[in-house]
Amino acid sequence: MMNSVVNESRNPERCPNRPRLLMLTHRLPYPPDKGERIRAYHMLRRLARHFDVFLACLCDESPTLDHWRRLERYTKRIALWPQRSVGSVLRTGGALVCGRSITAAYFRNHCLTQEIKHWHQTIGFDAALAVCSSMAGCLHGLDIPIRVLDLIDVDSAKWADYARRTDGPRAALYRWEATHLADYERELAQRFDRIVLTTDAEAALYKQIAPGASVTVVPNGVDLDYFQPAAHVDQPVAVFTGVLNYRPNVDGLGWLIENVWPAVRHRHPDAVLRIVGRDPNAAVKSMASRPGVELVGPVPDIRPHLARAAVSVAPLRMARGVQNKVLEAMAMARPVLTMPSIAHAIGADETCLCTAESAGQWLETLTVLFDDAPRRIQLGSAARAFVEHARHWDQTLEALSQLFSPPPPTAPKVDREIHRAA
User: Fold this and answer.
1) Which of 241, 252, 323, 410 lies 20 to 30 Å from 261 when distance is taken between CA atoms?
2) pLDDT exceeds 80 at position 405
3) Overall pTM > 0.70
4) At what angle do helices 359-371 and 373-390 cross, to 10 degrees?
């Protein structure tokens, strides 16, 4: 894998002497096939309208030529550094010994940090955007006038949720990370001019951790040109889409298949639940042995699988923020059944999104959706109208560029060390 590559843009529409922005991500922001990649990719496209963007990111897989060329459209220069699993594990162990956040330790990369420092010394950035708390440490010691951190969600709360749903030593480890990551998140409020989160609920939660933080909500959106409405489907087919080694997805699927799906099959013996997504783990693979469950796995294009489903399901009991899988299904005019917390994060009501919490409620709602074609069509149409009105990327990212205007005078930021990974 290339460590650092320069790709000077030849886009004639770009003006000379545009402001220079450094963007940091812990995953390559293309292809946009999972949550943080989707968000980072659309942020990159938006920022490239106003800035010369210099992209620096960790990478756990080599990009294809097509992926590389796509990123070249929006960047002035790209630096990639491989994420070495052995080094990450060693740093994680060091964090446990030293009482620091495991997340911050896992993604710390000295080589990438040094490359970024070299860039700033030779180029001089006007602004910086770090995506996820794990990339914040790369900016330590750099005198960049405007610094924005997109936390996306409050990850310390995620680890606390994991701990509440887990027993034994693993629960203790999750509680450890929840505590120490919250300390790290609190400190980051002192280091950045703006903190970005996806929902009002996440912003309020972060304000509890860091009361003095300057917080802006920038919701996730959906590509309405790519995800077009699909024709109505009569067969009792439900679809789940998402990354299939991500704990909230695995937990939600397991709960649905264990507690709801057998009763659905009793009422609809021909009902099928299709599971579509990359990286299925052993638990997800074992679910395919259950009656009426099909594991499709990774696909190059999720749209045909959404189009062939009567209902999209998102039984996420511990996920946070705005779920891209739900927005994509809504954009394709699929009726969606999810948990109330997911609908609340999106801002959708019962006119365009179905919610249920208990197993009994899920059974009854799925039964109604499978049996009532006019209801499915009505919900699908309302879902598409909702995302057209409130969740297209051009709208949700409207405030993003404004975040990089000079901040008002404030007290000097505390110049203390960010928690360092071992």
Assistant:
1) 323
2) no
3) yes
4) 100
